[in-house]
Amino acid sequence: MFKEMQEALIAGKKAEVESLVGQALAASLPAARILNEGLIPGMARLGELFKNNEVFIPEVLVAARAMNAGLAKLEPFLVKDKVQPKGVVVIGTVKGDLHDIGKNLVAMMLRGNGYKIVDMGIDVSPEKFVEAARSSGAGIVACSALLTTTMVQMKNVVEALEASGLKVPVIIGGAPVTEEYANQIRAHGFAPDAASAVEAVGKLLGV
Amino acid sequence: MSGRGLGLLMDVISRELVVSALELQSPPRVPRQLWILPWAERNHPSELAAIRNAYPDDILKCLPFLEKPLKTSGDEYAPGLYIDEWGCRFENRQWGVIGEVKDPLLKDWRDPAAVRIPEERLSVDARKVDEFCRAKDAFVYSWASVNLFERLQFIRGPENLYVDLAERPDELFVLIRRLHAFFKEELELWASTEVDALSFADDWGSQKSLLISPALWREVFKPLYREYVEIAHRNGKYAFMHSDGYITDIFPDLIEIGVDAVNSQIFCMDLWDLGRRFAGKITFWGEIDRQHLLPHGTPAEVAAAVSAAKEALYRGGGVIAQCEFGAGARPENVASVFETWNKLV
Fold it and tell me: Which of B50, B133, B152, B183 has CA 20 to 30 A from A195's CA?
């Protein structure tokens, strides 16, 4: 059943994923097992396909929607069983920048891989990143930028977090962003695409 | 300024130079064009003027010459809200760059009438266009900005559109046909003038891949692009295309349908692979890396990039020295692009 669930998820078959999650619950499988052996491996496989240019944004978006449908069905049972997310990630597009499709893809991939996402949206100031990281108990702050003129804001986020005393690693990504730039501003991770962001977050959180 | 100097080249007619480059006829120098975003005019006015003076454009985008004004509101390059002639609403936070659509016209398919086809764009005064072309030595391309994929995103919102492309609702194809018919009409109109080329532009690539699968692009969009190229060629015009991002996978298709020149982010892709596979088959209309080199590099690094582009792509033509002076770019780096090209060819 899990293999079928993963295939339905990768194909973006929302109703089928919902139905299979329902069947798994009806068969009294633990919610955590459905999540960890059914949905998350499907999303991880999708990430690989995306990274290797075997699927593209349309396929990722419909798969993420199917994932969300499955998660929504599972959610009450995860809460009841006190299943914890792998970690909390505060994510946003930096101040002055309104571009968000890349950020949204990263958020979807992370959510689909078992992380709780605090999505701050677009045009997010360093202060707001810090505030959200503090209030959510985030393990990671993830910043996105599309413009060469706004990517400099990432440095401000790193510095604001350092100044706040919060020991929360920052990962960055976006079209003009490079690993070299990440090192230069003392960010803790860099992701060239959404699937790599999941790997980078997992590495930093040790999960 | 190049030691090779403009003196020897002063008599070269820009239009002939561009045609010579497009036809691989070993032009006496590489034709050039600088794209300027308002950010550059605002932040580096004197440096920009010096660059334009030293390296005048050989290629010009025609002015619109519309008899009826476009129904827009606001300034597209200013912070705040800008509503374009289609009714698409762009939010912006920065001077000198274009904003983003956050509230698409068709969040669902219930009200297709919300999409306003801007008929004013068809009110081109062809006589003035022709006068403009005749008054210039430069190679002139159409003002019409045919941008089907981008326009679909502005109308539906990017994420809705991508889901549409996965799910293929009939309404999507009705909308595509409606836009495509308008764009063809616009291109036919420009093709009836004395411009040298028709242009169309869409951003098909992310940093490392196409945004949609090559198969989907070929199935849905390639036939439409083929029609745009056919309009150009049937009327004796060149077909010029722009796309941001990594588009290596569709270069063979662009060549097959007859695109003459493509403006792409060649430094997002494998420059040497592009050269090996496509040089001499299509003209590379720029550019030099505007994401990293122009804002963060040095003039020497820019010169090295231009040299690499020349070695990889130049085949007795087939290259136009184009770059964008956009947000964050350093004037000395922009100057280095043209100075280096003048030294090399």
Answer: B152
Query: How is B39-74 classified by DSSP, letter by letter?
Result: HHHHH-HHHHHHHHHHS--SEEEPP--BSS----BS
CB atoms B163 and A61 under 8 Å: yes
Q: Does A148 touch chain B (CB under 8 A)?
A: yes
Cα-atom radius of gyration of chain B, to the nearest Å? 20
Q: What is the rounded distance in angstroms from the CA atom of residue A172 to the CA atom of residue B342?
A: 38
Q: Which residue of A has its CA nearest to B210?
A: A56
Size of interface A-B (CB pairs under 8 A): 76
Hey, which residues does B90 pair with through a beta bridge? B82, B101
Q: How far is B302 from chain A (nearest CA, A)?
A: 17
Closest CA to B315 of B268, B274, B267: B274
Beta bridge partners of A119: A91
Show residues of chain A in contact with B162, CB under 8 Å: 57-58, 61
Residue in this structure with the two tokens 């690539």, named with its chain if needed = B205
Residue-level pLDDT at B8: 45
CB-based contacts of A117: which residues, under 8 Å, 6+ apart?
A88, A89, A91, A107, A110, A111
Q: Give the domains, in start order, of chain A with CATH numbers.
A: 2-80 (1.10.1240.10), 88-205 (3.40.50.280)
Dist CA B199 CA B182 (whole Å): 15
The ipTM of this complex is: 0.91
Return mean pLDDT, chain B. 94
Nearest-by-Cβ selection for A56 from B159, B207, B212? B212
Kindly provide the b/e burial profile for residues B334-343, where b requires at least 16 CB atoms within 10 angstroms of the residue's own CB: bbbbbbbbbe
Q: What is the pTM of this model?
A: 0.91
Spell out which residues of chain B touch residue A175, defining contact as CB-CB under 8 Å. 206-207, 291
Per-residue pLDDT for B17 more than 70? yes
